[in-house]
């Protein structure tokens, strides 16, 4: 067993998380907590489960070739137990309330106010657990004119400004708004939710006070505009789509080579000077037009044309080797298979393998932060729907087999 797969107590081993979320943003947050040691129980609808269990192909297959959950589900649901409860039924809602009474954290991503009719909103659960940390993840937040709207990543990428700066300019072939190739608004929000939860945990440890966290995809996306929003808020510059160009740094883009493409990213004048020297044109670095980054931005097109001509004479790997030798940041554009075959990715142990109880094996991506004292651990493969219902209701609520059997018969679990 790889050291990264050996179960450890984890920094969050003292926390219980009741996860009522599904799809990506909420599950991403709870997986982060689980990787760091928290006990996470994922509540799913009986017979149906998280929507992403069916978001394929590709699908997992067991040792006998039977089709199972979609690969998508496996990306954000390891280190969790799956419990099936129909909380639209009063008995099911009561089970969830009792579980919340013994939880440290509740995470949900229903529409604003959607859980109140089941008595599972913050105010109701706070009444049974005053120290509860309750995190709500929604598209637009708990307040404001859009609070009632459903929010999906693609929609938020557009409304949150990201698609206005992603893609080629209108006048270029293929120009127009473009979404990012991964659901980054969901992922940003999941990460912000995890950070906010940990802040709330620290506050509770100091004061004994729980709290409600309102975490919105829209807010998270706007926050992630970073320098682009600063360009507008501070400088009055409306960011535009620049394709692979950088709005504030030149040269910093993709360039064609004789057999592919290479990224060159010069973050300062020294790197630019070394780039020019390595390409046999040292005088370009001292041309008044290109002497500073500000000048290179003004004369971006002229410089890009010159660099394109110089780099297109060489093969991609030769360019990467040459520029690495002189410490100019550069690299290829890898496919996903290229990424996992890369010697650095292998050295960092970015691919992990987990196995379900039935022997089904599936690969995943390691938790990216390395903690020297309390490293992330991978204790459970993404669960089969409802596999932990019996055990969890026993350990969390003290229900015996007969009680759980009655609940199954009534369609509650």
Q: How would you explain this protein's 3D organization?
A:
The protein is α/β, with parallel strands linked by helices and 413 residues long. It has two domains: 284 residues, Crotonobetainyl-coa:carnitine coa-transferase, domain 1 (Rossmann fold, 3-Layer(aba) Sandwich), CATH 3.40.50; 90 residues, 2-Layer Sandwich (formyl-coa transferase, domain 3), CATH 3.30.1540.10. 35% of the residues lie in helices and 15% in strands. It contains 16 helices and 13 strands. The strands form four sheets. The chain has a six-stranded parallel β-sheet, sandwiched between helices. Strands 9-10-11 form a three-stranded antiparallel β-sheet, with helices on one face. A two-stranded antiparallel sheet has the order 3-4. β12 and β13 form a beta hairpin. It starts with 15 loop residues before the first strand and ends with a helix. The mean pLDDT is 94. It comes from Aquabacter spiritensis. One of its GO terms (molecular function) is CoA-transferase activity. Keywords: Transferase.
Features of the shown structure:
35% helix; formyl-coa transferase, domain 3; Rossmann fold
TL;DR of this structure?
The protein has 413 residues and is an alpha/beta fold. It is built from 16 helices and 13 strands.
Low-confidence stretches: none
The number of helices is 16
Enumerate the strands of the largest sheet in spatial order, edge to edge or round the barrel: 5-2-1-6-7-8
Approximate strand percentage: 15-25%
Helix content: 25-40%
**Shape, principal axes of CA atoms:** elongated
SSE ordering: EHEEEHEHEHEHHEHHEEHHHHEHHEEHH
So what's the CATH class of the largest domain? Alpha Beta
Q: What would the CATH topology of the largest domain be?
A: Rossmann fold
Number of extended strands: 13
Number of discrete domains: 2
- Cα gyration radius (Å): 25 Å
The named CATH superfamily of the largest domain: Crotonobetainyl-coa:carnitine coa-transferase, domain 1
Q: Distance N terminus to C terminus?
A: 35 Å
Average of per-residue pLDDT values: 94
